[in-house]
Specification:
This protein is mainly alpha-helical. It is about 50% helix and about 10% strand. The strands form 2 sheets. Strands 1-3-2 form a 3-stranded mixed beta sheet, covered by helices on one side. Strands 4-5 form a two-stranded antiparallel ribbon. A hairpin with a 3-residue loop joins strand 2 and strand 3 (about 130-135). Helix 8 (about 160-175) packs across helix 10. The two termini are about 15 Å apart. The relative contact order is 0.23.
């Protein structure tokens, strides 16, 4: 079995922050043992949200500066932040669904098949000040898997992938418009200090974690949306999705299922 660092290097091209922030796809494809989709999804949906902290922070550029206790604490605070703002904006705007909230926010939401002028696999993105794009190629590729009763049962009838992606991107709008108060923007760490001089920095991944929690709360699924990383990648490459699944399971301290 490969180490975390080996998986991290192999999976960089497909796992640089899914939900809209992957790297270029021009690379030599790695090879991973295939695993059953239904079993992978069942294993991943069983991981409590807070236990995704190692996987989440593995995508953070400053991760090497943190202690494990800090990662755990910030994960919990970011999840709480996402839940809090999901409840807050629903109450403020009198909306329940991501689509209703997008309309209330005055967002321009479009659903093109592919992003323009890019060689990246992109699921969705928020463009300031008021544009959200949900790229439907990834969504369309996994529709057929919902025909499997096992997949549908694991992911539940509450899952609507386009709504989940929309909700995730809506949080980034909320975060930007409330950046003076929201935890994901106000929380900083000191990188260095020398006498009166110092350099403080925000932590990028906090916003991504909170966006996952915000989306989960709005859509109502009972599991962490990180599961979608594997599901949507599976539509492009079952092999790479299997590799990403194994990395996630290792980060969560769990044993991956047997390969096919």
């Amino acid at each position: 079995m490969k180490t975390r660092e080996e998986w991290k290097e192999l999976l960089k091209p497909i796992a640089r922050g899914l939900f809209g922030k992957q790297g270029a796809t021009r690379y030599e494809r790695p090879h991973f043992p295939l695993r059953p989709l239904e079993t992978m999804l069942k294993d991943l949906t069983d991981i409590p949200f807070a236990d995704w902290y190692s996987y989440a922070f593995s995508r953070e550029p400053l991760n090497g500066r943190f202690q494990d206790s800090q990662r755990r604490s910030w994960m919990e605070q970011s999840i709480a932040c996402g839940y809090e703002y999901a409840d807050r904006v629903r109450k403020e705007y009198g909306c329940e669904t991501p689509e209703e909230l997008a309309q209330a926010f005055g967002m321009q939401v479009t659903y093109p098949a592919f992003p323009e002028k890019t060689d990246r696999v992109l699921f969705a993105e928020f463009r300031e000040p008021d544009q959200i794009r949900i790229y439907m190629d990834a969504v369309d590729r996994v529709r057929k898997y919902f025909l499997s009763p096992q997949v549908g049962q694991v992911l539940t009838e509450k899952l609507n992938i386009t709504s989940l992606l929309l909700a995730h991107e809506l949080f980034h709008y909320v975060e930007e418009t409330r950046k003076k108060e929201i935890f994901t923007r106000t929380h900083q760490i000191r990188l260095w200090s020398l006498g009166p001089l110092h350099n403080d920095s925000g932590i990028m991944i906090l916003g991504e974690i909170a966006a996952m929690a915000f989306a989960q709360k709005l859509v109502g699924i009972p599991y962490a949306p990180y599961v979608m990383d594997v599901f949507l990648v599976y539509g492009y490459s079952p092999e790479e999705a299997s590799g990403l699944y194994e990395e996630m399971m290792q980060f969560a301290g769990r044993e991956p299922c047997a390969s096919l």
